[in-house]
C-alpha cells in the first residue's frame, strides 16, 4: 500500500488471467482479490467495496480509470464495477481518442503493462493476529492501469478471449490509421 495525494491509498494488482483487451480497447478483469495478502501486508475482505459502490451509484458518479494513479491523466471509463465471490471485477473502455489512452492500449496489447491498481480511502480496518491489516470497508476512488502491481498472484491473459495474433494486427492497423489521421490535422 502506498499513500498518494489527499490521503488516498493505492493497491496494485496484476491484470489477472481473466483480463484482456477485447473489441479494440475494451478491458475487463479483477482490480482486487478478496482474502489474498498483498505485498504491503493488507487483505481486502469480501464486501469492502459495497457501500462505496452504492454511494457512487446513488450520486450518479463513477470510479475513474486513470493512468498510473495520475488524476491529470484519465484514460478511459469503467462501464461496470462490481464485487463478486473473488473480488472487485471491472469492465471498461480505454479511450484512444486521448493520447495517453492510445499509449495505454498499445502497451497493454503488447504486454508491456499488466497491472491494475485501486485508489481508495480506508473507512474500516483492523489488524489480525499476524499483523495483517484487514480492510473491511473502503471508499473506492479510482482504478488505474499501472506498471507495478501489488498482487503478483494474478497474471495477464484471458481464458479463451485473449488477443490472438490476428486481433493484434487489427489493433495495430487501427492505431496506424489513427496516427495517419492525426498527422493530417
From TrEMBL:
Domain Prohead serine protease: 26-157
One GO BP: proteolysis
Top-level taxon of the source organism: Bacteria
InterPro entries, per database record: Peptidase_S78_dom, Prohead_protease
Keyword field contains Hydrolase: yes
Gene Ontology molecular function terms on file: peptidase activity
Transmembrane segments: none
UniProt entry keywords in alphabetical sequence: Hydrolase, Protease, Viral release from host cell
Pfam family, one: Peptidase_S78
Designated name of the protein: HK97 family phage prohead protease
Organism: Defluviimonas salinarum
